[in-house]
Amino acid sequence: MKNVSIVDVAKQAGVSVTTVSRIINNVNYPVASNTREKVLKVIDELQYTPNKAAQGLKRKFSDIIGLIVRDVSDSYFGEIANGVTNRASELGYLSFVCNTGRNPEDELRYHYHLWQHRVKGIILAGGGFDQLDYKQKLENQVVRYEKYGLKIVSLAPQGIEIPYVMINDFDAGKKVTEYLIQRGHTKIGFIGGPQKIFASMERLKGFKVAIDAAGIEYNRKYIIISDFSQKGGYDACKSLMSECKDLTAICCANDNIAIGAMSAIREHGFSIPKDISVISIGDIKDAKYTNPPLTTLTIPHYEMGQMAVDVITQWKEKVEITLSTSIFERESVRILDN
C-alpha cells in the first residue's frame, strides 16, 4: 500500500490542500462543519497520518495516556478514571480524560486527536455500539494503532477484536438473576440498558439464559429497556410496574437504573424488599447509601483502571483479561417463603 499524502486526502474530499491542513492543525480559521466532517472521514478511510504524527513516529511515544469515557459524571466512569489517573501518576505518566457524552462521533474524534498527539496508549471505557459504521471506524483505528505500536485497551465489549481488561457481562446478568431464583423468585422483571450497547445486550442474554435454565416461563412483558441513568431507571420501572402487577423482584442492568427504579417502587407505595426485591450490577459508591442498601454485583472499577494502565505501560503481549466478580449482599433482596 502506497503512502497516503495530504494531496490524496484533499483530492478524495474535493477540497484544497490548504483546507485539509487547516483542519488537521486546528488553526483559528473558519471551516464549514460539513467540510470538516467530510475531511475527517476521508482521513479515517485512508488512514492518513498527518505530519504531526508522522514526525512523532521517529521519536518515542509521549508520556500521555488517553482515557475515553461515555459520561464522566457517572460514578461508574468516575471510579475507572480515578484508577487510571492515580496509577498513571504513580508511573510518571500524564492522563487525559476525554468525555464523549455517549456520542459515537465525538468518541471517534477523540481517537483521532489522541493519535495525532502520539499518546502512549488509549483506554476505552464503556460498551461499544452495535452500529456497522461505528464498528468499522473503530476497527480501522485499532489496525492503525497496532501498525505503529500505539496500545489500546478496552474495558467493555466493543463487538470487534480488541485487547481488553473487563468483566464477563453475560455472566454478570446470569449471576444476579440466579441469585434471585435461588431465593425463590420466579416473577422477575429486567430493566436493561440501551439496546445497541454490547454490554447491555450481554447482560440481557445472561438474564434470559438463567430464566430458561430454571424452567421459568419467559415473558417478554417482564423486560423493559432504559438508558443507564437514574431517571431512565425510574421511568422504566414505572412502566414495568403498570404492565406487570405480579413482580416480586427486578434485575437492573446497572446501579443507576436500580437507584431510579427503587424511587419508583417506593412512590407506588411498595416496600423494598418486602414487596419487591431489587438487584443490580456495578456496586458504585452510591449503592450502599440507597434505602435500603442495594444488593449488587461488584465490578472492580478502580482496579480495572489501574490494570489498564499497567497493560499499556508494562505489558508487551496482547492481553485478554476477564476479571472475577461477586455479589455484595446488602438489604434489597428478600428470600421468599415456600
TrEMBL record:
Source organism, top-level taxon: Bacteria
Domain HTH lacI-type: 4-59
Gene Ontology molecular function terms on file: DNA-binding transcription factor activity; transcription cis-regulatory region binding
Gene3D superfamilies linked: 3.40.50.2300, lambda repressor-like DNA-binding domains
Name of one Pfam family that matches: LacI
Keyword field: DNA-binding, Transcription, Transcription regulation
Stated name of the protein: Transcriptional regulator, LacI family
Taxonomic path: Bacteria, Bacillati, Bacillota, Clostridia, Eubacteriales
